[in-house]
Amino acid sequence: MSDHSHDTHAAPTHDAHGSGAHGHDDHGGIGLYVKIFVALCVLTGASFFTYSDAWPWHDKPAVGWAFMMAVSCTKALLVMMFFMHLIWEADWKYVLTIPASFMSLFLVVALIPDVGMRVHGNYGYSHSPSRMEYVGQPSDTEALVHASLPYADGEGHGGAKH
Amino acid sequence: MSHEAHAPAAGHLKLQYQPALPLRNGKLFLWLFLSTEIMFFAGLIGMYIVLRFGATVWPVPHAVHLSEPTGAFNTFVLICSSVTIVLALEAAKKNKSDAAKFWLILTLALGSVFLGVKALEYRAKFAHKIVPTMPGSPIFNIYEKADRYYGSAVKYRAEEILDGVAAEEKALAAKYDAMAAEVADKKLPQAEADERLKAIADERAKETASREEGEDGWKKKKEVVNPLLSEAKTVNQPDILYGLAARIMPMAGARDKRHFLGLNDTYHWLKMPIVVPGGNMWAATYFTLTGFHAIHVIVGLIAFGLMMPMKFTAANCGIIENVGLYWHFVDLVWIFLFPILYLF
């Protein structure tokens, strides 16, 4: 670190952004934390709403996914900003969080060509024939769901064919 | 370093130490650690998303016995614990050690509730044998489709159960035959020998009856397994094989909230292979993501436990802040895991 350069300069103790145990007294407060808690609960309820029958876009799952991701990002921001105090911290927060976030994004993007597009890609990607022999298809789910109908509500659980 | 700076070498110059970054070393370390953790979990969550959307088929949550309301409850529990740890920090800043400890204990309790619910969820998965296995593994495999491989796995398991019953029957017969032979060898008076043999025969009939009856008795095992065995032998007849798979573990449709019970639920000794299209990959990603998250929860709980004997003041509240940051991060990860695992 650059301790020596600082040693040679007379500078007042930097404490405006909360440098330690005695830096956070002037922000937060129980009232604010309770508000954030309520907001987080409401947002969790909003995510869960996509599961209920009242959600109008069950036939378009992408709408629900986008909605849930937006809700999750909002919740994550609230937790980071207020509970983790980032909103009151100095600019060092960008040094640590932005590169890490970009690396996270790159990690995901790097998986897309070889793994994500293996089946749905338009560039000739596919499972290997030996894998395709085992891999399930949507038609398999349909066949199983159809065959399962007699066993709804625990009926026909007696096992042996009656 | 700082002690040199404070030395009155120049006589009239009073130098002050200023740290390189405006935060404590502990907090800096914690944030550096969290930066690596962000990448760690982003890699895992990214892996899930890429595999999930790259898969030809993926099971809906309740097809793999995942309860959406339970996931929502656990989310609520973790949010509450985030609030309690932040309140512990606030109390410590005001030198209210007892209050800080109260909130800390509450956080520990909420974290334990989360883990308890998670353990119950895992138990349900293990009970249904929804665990990742290698393709072609002979035991407790999740099959992607009801094909000839599935049929032969059911046949294998059915024969294993019937062979087990046959071995038990044979062992029981051998035991009583040996007892009868022992009586015969002793050359007892006829009346006494007859009496003893009758007692042995009675005991044999009694034990045989007790082993045959009941939900896990020999009769029930044969009654349940024999039809499965004969159907499992119908190679390349998809209708029959899917009917077989549905009887063993039925699968609800995407929006079907009815309760489905299969043979594996009714008879816990059955443990037949199951068919869940996309289920093996689902199980692998589910256990990887929630497992690593649960390990982080456990580490947090250990940290809370170690802090219990401490007396908290404004001077040492940094430790609550550090552990709190870690705990908020654990909450943050769950905020993303809940929708992608339970609601997508």
Structure summary:
The complex is a heterodimer of chains A (162) and B (344). Chain A is an all-alpha fold.
Secondary-structure element pattern of chain A, one letter each: HHHHHH
CATH first level of the largest domain in chain B: which class? Mainly Alpha
Number of strands of chain A: 0
Class from secondary-structure proportions of chain B: mainly alpha
Please outline the major beta sheet of chain B.
2 strands, parallel
What structural class do you assign from the helix and strand content of chain A?
Answer: mainly alpha
Our count of domains of chain A comes out at 2
Shape of chain B: elongated
Beta strand % of chain B: under 5%
In DSSP terms (H or I, runs of 4 or more residues), the helix count of chain B works out at 11
Overall average pLDDT of chain A = 76
Q: Helical percent range of chain A? A: 55-70%
Unreliable segments of 5+ consecutive residues of chain B:
1-7
Number of folding domains of chain B? 2
Q: Biggest sheet of chain B, strands in spatial order? A: 1-2
The oligomeric state of the chains shown is heterodimer
Question: What's the structural blueprint in terms of helices and strands?
Answer:
The complex is a heterodimer of chains A (162) and B (344).
Chain A lengths: L2 H5 L22 H20 L11 H23 L8 H29 L8 H4 L5 H11 L14
Helix pairs in contact in A: 2-3
Chain B lengths: L1 H5 L18 H30 L13 H26 L3 H31 L14 E2 L4 H38 L4 H23 L5 H15 L5 H11 L14 H4 L7 E2 L3 H29 L10 H26 L1
Parallel strand pairs in B: 1-2
